[in-house]
Design a protein that fits this description.
single chain; Purple Acid Phosphatase, chain A, domain 2; five-stranded mixed β-sheet
Length: 258
């Protein structure tokens, strides 16, 4: 995996050139919401962004209740095949731009350990190279102003959407993208006043999970479905959050996607 922590990384260069970036939230295959994901994929193919960044939570490889270790390989392969068929191949059927996946080994909390797709078995299971999907290192600096993180185990999730991300932004002193909370929102924090004023942004990009299948633990209660977009405005990237209905539908720039 290429080093995406450094400011000279390939992702940094891709971000610098991008005018529209689609931020895909946690999917948690096989607990993803098929209608939401299908609408999201159609959206990507319709608007042809410069870059797609999946913010982790790609696939749950934890064993279901009642299974033992002898079932693990079969379950991992089955779920990885679903990711490749319903996500990677679906996106690549109509989008050949930059495609990145955030790489972290575990997700959620100690009570719900979930592999996020990559990890040691990731390259062979998910065929990242075959689909032209690059991996983003944990806690990566995307630009001098933006970073992406999963979260930190000593950081409690805030109940207000965007609250966890702005706390992480405060730590890194950069605008921060975060998907771990399953909440959808942007928080702003301004320091100082007048010409010395500076505003940090914390962006949480929701989820596309079927909540009937994957019940959140207390720290992840009251989630909001949706995804995010970063749009270039001059020399700045401006975040936008897109709420999704339970049917999978949503509106962007006055156009409805289903």
């Amino acid at each position: 995996m290429s080093d995406t922590h450094a400011l000279g990384s390939p992702l940094r260069h891709a971000f610098a050139a991008a005018r529209t970036i689609v931020l895909t939230p946690h999917l948690h295959f096989p607990h993803h919401h098929p209608a939401m994901l299908a609408a999201h994929v159609r959206f990507i193919k319709a608007i042809q962004p410069d870059l797609v960044l999946n913010l982790g939570g790609l696939c749950d490889l934890a064993l279901p209740p009642g299974c033992d270790d002898s079932d693990q390989t079969e379950i991992m392969v089955e779920r990885a095949d679903a990711v490749k068929r319903d996500y990677f191949a679906a996106v690549r059927s109509g989008f050949d731009g930059d495609f990145w996946v955030y790489d972290c080994d575990t997700n959620q909390d100690d009570q719900h350990v979930c592999r996020c797709g990559p990890g040691p078995a990731g390259p062979s299971l998910f065929d990242f190279d075959g689909f032209g999907v690059h991996r983003v290192g944990p806690d990566s600096i995307l630009t001098p102003e933006w970073s992406v993180t999963h979260t930190h185990r000593d950081m409690k999730n805030r109940l207000v959407a965007g609250g966890t991300a702005i706390a992480l932004a405060r730590r890194s002193d950069r605008h921060t993208l975060c998907a771990h909370t399953h909440r959808l929102g942007i928080c702003f924090e301004t320091t100082d006043t007048g010409p010395r004023a500076r505003t940090l942004m914390g962006v949480e990009v929701g989820h596309m999970v079927d909540e009937k299948q994957l019940q959140p633990s207390p720290g992840y209660a009251r989630p909001q479905a949706g995804f995010g977009i970063l749009e270039s405005s001059g020399d700045r990237l401006v975040p936008v959050t897109i709420p999704m209905q339970r049917s999978g539908g949503f509106v962007y720039n006055g156009e409805r996607f289903t």
